[in-house]
Specification:
494 residues, mainly beta, 7% helix, disordered N terminus
Length: 494
Amino acid sequence: MFKNIKFQIILALVFSMLFWSCSEDLGNYDYVDINQVEFEGIASNYTALFGEPFEIIPTLNYTKDGSADESRYSYEWVAYNETALQADQKWPLATTKNLQLEALTVPPNDYNVRYLVTDVETGVQWSTSFKLNVESTISEGWMVLNDVNGVARLDMVSKVAGEYSPIYDVLDYANSSLTLEGAPVNVYCYAYDPQFYGIYVTTEGTGTTKIEPDTFDWKVEYYLSFEMLSDVPTDFGADFIERTGGNESVMYKDGNFYYYVRVYQYRYGVPINIVDGEVEPFKAAPFVGAVGQFRGANLYYDVEERRFLRQSWGAQKCNVMPEGTLFDYNTGKDLLFMDGTSYNGGEVFAILKEPGLEKLFLARMSSGIFGRINQVYYEEIPAEIAADMAQADHFAVSPQFGYVFYNVGGKIYEYDFGLKQTKLMIDRGDEEVTVLKFQKLSPYSNSLLLATHGAGASSGKMSLYEVAPVNGDLVPLESYDGFGKIVSISYRDQ
């Protein structure tokens, strides 16, 4: 018993001494403040434009480094997109003290950006963060493919905050990995897939390819050949692509048409310009007349047999047309022009020429349900007008009034089929008219689009005009210049 009491007393003395030592030791430490960084001049939120310069000049206050020697520190600006796939979440922006970008190249989206400063001597790191909303300067507007000294260049008249302004060489502007080669052929935009808006660019050296719609970047699988079932070269180039309905489009190459229907998973495969029951494809004129959005039909023209042929919606062959009420579908004439329009609820306009003569005819056709074709109008164009119109380079039909516009040299005329009269609307003198059209499915679908080119390399000009009723003068709307020789224009939606 006495041993236990003695042992307890000894333990108590030991613990008392330890407690006293620790208490004394606490008073022996000298605390030294480490260097800290205080961030100033950085807001909590920023909005910036994709492809445009962007900068932040921060002020860094060092609590223990009065000299603020920048060589002692490393810097990093990183954007994080938490909604993207793992591989695309992190976007390094800069490794400099100031964020000064000649062009902001992260895709349009919302980001959290971290700014990190590291003391390279101690390894201590400080950071701050802010929100960054990147908006696109290339999400809507006119895509303009032009020839600059024999080489293709893609420009854009971009719509930002309701205003349009040109971006010359938009692929370079967007830091795209695509370099166009050879002469320009065609540009065409349409929503071919809900997940990927189609911007198709064709040049003689590059072939036909899409570009990424948000950034204009490029991958090899964007080639049109990846949408085709046919065995074609990777850099296959189409003459043109045209949307013919909500889920369908056609592609034309060297007298052949190919058909795409998304809902049926039809891809461009064998030519559809073959008549059901015939063996060989016919040589098709480079025009398609789409005459119905709901189970309508597409019209084609057999160049050699000089006849109209019909492709019903979803069909992969054509059919011979039934007997017409106003004219024979086996016309025996050459086709100068054909296009589907929204005029009068949806009509196809076709201009036909008597072989060897300057006799022209205007035919108009509409579509009934399930692809039935109705002949609406067929008249010879007056001889004094036809002699000039037969020399036209381009034709376009007003979807609002049905006026036929055409150019002979630098003169643009308007033909009224009701009055059978023509009127000179624009005279550009020695300038070459390179594009004359009405852009379907755009904010300017009723406006005449004109592109001309003068003597200089950058003399290309794009103009829009309002078409007035009762043969009134064209009303200028907008005009943009500084392009090369424009060969193709298409409007891209958001």
